[in-house]
Amino acid sequence: MKSMMMKSGLLAAAAVLALTAGVSADPVDEQLVIDGQEMITRAKAPEGHPFDEVLSGWLYREAETRKLEEDSFDNPGMLSVEEGEEIWNTVEGTAGKSCASCHDDAADTMAGIAANYPKWDPDAKRPINIELQINKCREENMGAEPYAFDKSGQKELTAYIKHQSLGDPVSVDLSQGEMQQWWERGKDVYYTRTGQLNLSCASCHEQNNGNYIRADHLSQGQVNGFPTYRLKTGLTSLHNRFRGCVRDTRAEIPKAFSDDLMALETYVTWRGTGLSVETPSVRQ
Amino acid sequence: MASKPRIKLPKKASAGEVITIKTLISHEMESGQRKDKDGNAIPRQIINKFTCAFEGATVFECDLDPAISANPFFEFTAKVNESGTFKFTWVDDDGSVYEAEQAIEVA
């Protein structure tokens, strides 16, 4: 009798294992083409990367979600990009300038630019991303108030500027200034377990990408499509997503553009080296 | 209230071809059922009618109601037999009319 019970217990354990294996799902093997332009969604990982191949989050999404990104007309994020274009041409501040006053047509002057951010900012002695670059420009050149995090069109203008690099491969220059040290710090942040759930970025996006966490298909956590259009929250900035992820581990949430998150942005952007900029990507 | 409407249809088609037309307009579609911070009702302002016509003949039209969400998007098909112009019209509750048009060449 006892041995029979043990046997059925083993069988049940085997059934649970089979179930777990059943819910894991690989990224799809498809090509992302946006309005006829091919995107790089699979790239050979840079040296020192834990993966052989880096994969865009697009490959992990459902067919309906993937389709939304293939046509810029269907992509709901493009409405925000158009709003960003209006902001680009709007005069603000005491200097009486708009972005366009100095940078003219973004289609020419901003093409490919955002694919190389974050960059080293020698004035602030820290990495600078597009959002902070916009604020720097507003303060120094336009005489305008810097945008508060996620407010007054910061996301839309960032999306517009990044969209000008659509299709260009992400590449961060770590030889500038102290970028290498910030990369190291970002790596520490990435692998440090935090919060009541004791999770690091790597727990989900490195060890479990391709698996499901409840109904969510975990991706490699690439940032090449930010600001991204999320089906549940609309246009979402990278630092908002970082903060959301950290909140879900039930840890204390770092401030947007804080040193920790700028280091993390530097490191995570590097982890997506070679992927096309997809801004505004469409994600879950 | 609304920004420029967007339309997407092919510039060229062959005679008798069924083409797909997509339209999108930015509009808040305020339902009239919400209240502001002070508890006052926010008045309804929606786009209440959409029409697509080809050379004066209606191809597609519909009435919109308050349950339609912001930035209404339409996708429909039309059979084209000859060259001409598609005209699109959105009518706002405040009487504004937003228009767009695009020609198609049929070979």
From TrEMBL, chain B:
The organism's place on the tree of life at top rank: Bacteria
A Pfam entry, by short name: SoxZ
Gene3D superfamilies hit by this protein: Immunoglobulins
Residues in Sulphur oxidation protein SoxZ domain copies: 7-102
Name the UniProt record assigns to this protein: Thiosulfate oxidation carrier complex protein SoxZ
The organism of origin for this protein: Pseudohoeflea suaedae
